[in-house]
């Protein structure tokens, strides 16, 4: 047994000492950061992989604003793949694998697919995927015979205007305008269909200049997986669907089975970006970094809905956990980012997490009250709320069972619910409107925080940061006091 000589500190235990600042306007600062060695965010904010926080709608909003969302894993592989696809199709100046059908398909079938998929046009391809036509709502709208083949109404091969795979967004915009087109198919040298650029997608792209996108202009998104053997297939399906990173997410990530899983994933998917966690110690971060993780997620028990520390007695106050984990990554000789996960209540906590060594922060309950979070809004005493629940809460375990069914060995047996030992709670948070507004306040706090820290960038903030430990009186002084709030 040993007791550490140093105290464990968390956000409320410290303040940052203001530094002489060269920043004259907070608009001069740069909030961009590395999520993993290959993924750059414009704001250092990640929405948590929780079933009351991040599904496609939240991930779309996060990526459009410059952050990223991680789709939770408490759904079937098929459902999670669909969520990733929804994000990937939401924006991007080129849709990969657009909906296509053979020329023998009937007008009625084309109509049905367009309605089901909510698209205004379909590509027509030969058996070997060569683009031979294009059919839009306008082509079939007043067609007299809906059982006729689409070859009768489609744009014929010689009339198609298409582009090559290396077309830029600006060139596509020019072509679409010049020919007054709405759709521009993209083909390879053999004429095989590769993708589709639409005028709508270019417009959407321009509306979100801060969006975090991949090389095809599609929004970036992450997906969580577990450590069961079946998660290797889940990982493969998610990567094939376009997930930009995988988050190997278990409560106690400093475990042999987690390390083994990182090594297996690394061997099978050498190019994938892998985030692993959660850990809260130098040794934990060191081991996951050595196993091949591309970023380390830090936090054992700081979360708003977590009871791990109460139930098990384990955890490390979050500021110390981040600092120790950063030291662990350094000791491993790897320059990989830290993601501080949990316990962020206000923008100042985020600034402290970044200053002490995190490159980005993950938040759950901060976003659970947003319109884009899954789940309905409930009204209590005339006020709007949304539900947030810990992923180790009893409610989440029951929900998981309902979705995954009895084939999942990790799920609890319905008859044994009283044997579940929850490490999380279910709660409500006030409804907070659109996530964009919440992010604006958070990022505004970071802009000012950088300015107080005398830093133009997050890296500079880390270099210059000096923390001072405060007393309960200092904490009281930090908050509004001795006035009645209006
Ligand atoms: P915040 O404070 O942002 O924290 O709401 C979100 C993080 O909390 C973790 N999490 C849990 N931790 N029991 C726990 O001990 C749980 O049931 C639980 N559910 C989520 C997770 O790391 C999340 O990102």
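Q: What amino acid sequence fits the structure above?
A:
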């Amino acid at each position: 047994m040993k007791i550490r000589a140093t105290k464990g500190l968390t956000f409320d235990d410290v303040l940052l000492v203001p530094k002489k600042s060269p920043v004259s306007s907070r608009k001069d600062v740069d909030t961009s950061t590395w999520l993993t060695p290959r993924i750059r965010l414009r704001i250092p904010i990640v929405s948590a992989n929780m079933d009351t926080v991040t599904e496609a709608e939240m991930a779309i909003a996060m990526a459009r604003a410059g952050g990223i969302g991680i789709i939770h894993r408490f759904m079937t592989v098929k459902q999670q793949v669909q969520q990733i696809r929804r994000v990937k199709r939401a924006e991007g100046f080129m849709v990969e694998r657009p909906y296509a059908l053979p020329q023998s398909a009937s007008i009625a079938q084309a109509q049905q697919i367009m309605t089901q998929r909510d698209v205004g046009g379909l590509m027509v391809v030969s058996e070997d995927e060569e683009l031979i036509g294009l059919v839009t709502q306008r082509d079939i709208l007043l067609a007299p015979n809906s059982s006729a083949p689409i070859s009768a109404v489609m744009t014929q091969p010689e009339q198609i205007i298409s582009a090559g795979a290396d077309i830029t967004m600006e060139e596509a915009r020019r072509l679409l305008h010049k020919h007054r087109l709405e759709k521009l198919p993209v083909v390879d040298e053999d004429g095989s269909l590769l993708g589709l650029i639409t005028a709508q997608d270019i417009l959407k792209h321009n509306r979100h200049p801060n969006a975090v996108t991949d090389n095809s202009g599609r929004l970036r998104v992450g997906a969580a997986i577990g450590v069961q053997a079946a998660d290797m297939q889940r990982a493969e399906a998610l990567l094939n669907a376009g997930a930009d990173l995988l988050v190997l997410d278990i409560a106690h990530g400093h475990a042999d089975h987690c390390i083994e899983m990182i090594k297996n994933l690394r061997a099978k998917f050498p190019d994938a970006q892998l985030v692993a966690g959660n850990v809260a110690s130098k040794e934990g971060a060191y081991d996951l970094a050595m196993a091949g993780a591309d970023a380390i997620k830090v936090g054992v028990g700081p979360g708003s809905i977590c009871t791990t520390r109460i139930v098990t007695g384990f955890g490390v106050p979050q500021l110390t956990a981040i600092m120790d984990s950063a030291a662990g990554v350094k000791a491993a000789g790897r320059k990989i980012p830290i993601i501080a996960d949990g316990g962020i209540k206000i923008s100042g906590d985020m600034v402290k997490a970044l200053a002490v060594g995190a490159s980005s922060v993950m938040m759950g309950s901060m976003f659970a009250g947003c319109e884009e979070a899954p789940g309905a809004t409930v009204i209590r005493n005339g006020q709007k709320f949304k539900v947030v629940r810990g992923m180790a809460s009893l409610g989440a375990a029951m929900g998981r069972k309902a979705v995954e069914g009895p084939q999942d060995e990790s799920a609890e047996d319905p008859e044994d619910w009283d044997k579940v030992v929850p490490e999380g709670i279910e709660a409500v948070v006030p409804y907070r409107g659109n996530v964009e507004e919440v992010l604006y306040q958070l990022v505004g706090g970071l802009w000012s925080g950088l300015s107080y820290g005398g830093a133009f960038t997050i890296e500079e903030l880390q270099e210059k940061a000096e923390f001072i430990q405060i007393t309960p009186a200092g904490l009281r002084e930090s908050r509004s006091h001795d006035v009645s709030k209006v």
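Q: And what stands out in the fold?
A: The pocket of xanthosine-5'-monophosphate is lined by residues 48, 50, 278, 299, 301, 303-306, 308, 341-344, 362-366, 390-393, 423-424 (CB under 6 Å).
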